[in-house]
Amino acid sequence: MNIRILFIAFITIIVFPDCTPPEKYSNIYVGGYRIFDQFHPCPFLIEDLGDKMIKLDNKLTVIDSLHSNIIRAESGDTIIGNESQYEIVFNRKDIFSILDLSNTISNFKLASVYNRAKIYPDCSKEKLSKTLENNIWEFDISEPNPNKDLSIKTTLLFSNNVLSTLREYSYINELIHLEKETKHFHIQEYKGLVFLCIEDRDKPKNLLPIYQVKSISENEIKLINFRVRLTEELSLVKQQINKNKYLEVVNKAVNFKRCYDGFQGEYYANDDTTFKKGNQWILKNVQSNAPKTNKDGYINFHYTVNCNGHLGHFGLEQMDRSFEPISYEPEFVKHIFDKIKTLNEYPKINPWHPDYAYNEDVHGFLMFKTESGKITDICP
Fold first, then answer.
1. Where does 125-255 sit in CATH, by number?
2. What mean pLDDT do residues 267-293 have?
3. Spatial CB neighbours of 246, under 8 Å, sequence gap ≥ 6
């Protein structure tokens, strides 16, 4: 009898090696990011209706009706819609890229990529809302500026369609900076797919991502982030933190918000966005009362300057004279960081819009050289 059971089990494994049901695809294509910088979101849906397609915004409003099907088109073809025309940049299995020709700048770098969404059962708008609301979630998301040596913990609080973000910056396990910002969110359910949509109601033209919800449990929510040529899975992990105590920490944080969350420029491109008093003033200010260090090398702080001339989204890189990684003393790092955070005389930034790189914020950095225990130079 036992031999017979083992034989049946063996045959089952050979004939049916994988009993996992195949993943099912929907007829919905979700906008990811544009090709050029992979930072500028395209929060739209395109639904395949067979002989035609419709384009929806993140409120599920139909904003265009396409007279033919992109899936059947080839690279270089033009698709006509009621509101616009679209050039096919590429068209592959379950993914395509289109360029909206209504844009006055017809540059392929402005093309956006759409990925076909999979169907994930057991997700619903009601379930997501109930799980998200009034809980604190850690969100591991890539930061916009180079960073190797700061530990940055990002937590989110979803409450009454308001999304509060807290960034906690630590160096060698010591908290050295708190930063916060507020946006809005809403949840949409369409044809069995659930989406978490982020929005900037103060500036509707500041487009923000749309995430598909993959799974919902009490302590973790998995999201699909539609990148350019692939998708990535992100997780919201529930934090066991008292909400009132968390809000006390949030109240201590400094407000910082990008003016435009897509592409950010470089300080030397936007009318040379540099500190009004000059870098030599910064050097003398940082040198004042600086603690000694026993390391010779370079300590480089990165940051974003928003359109109002405010600094945030910090990063840190440290290296010796041979450009190998090192770690400066915590009190030395904190001294420089505290000085940089007080630099409030950067100019306001005018929007800069070459053919395909519109931005309202810039990336800047300050790198200090140390020799014989002292800060001796600054770059740039």
1. 2.40.128
2. 86
3. 136, 155, 157, 166
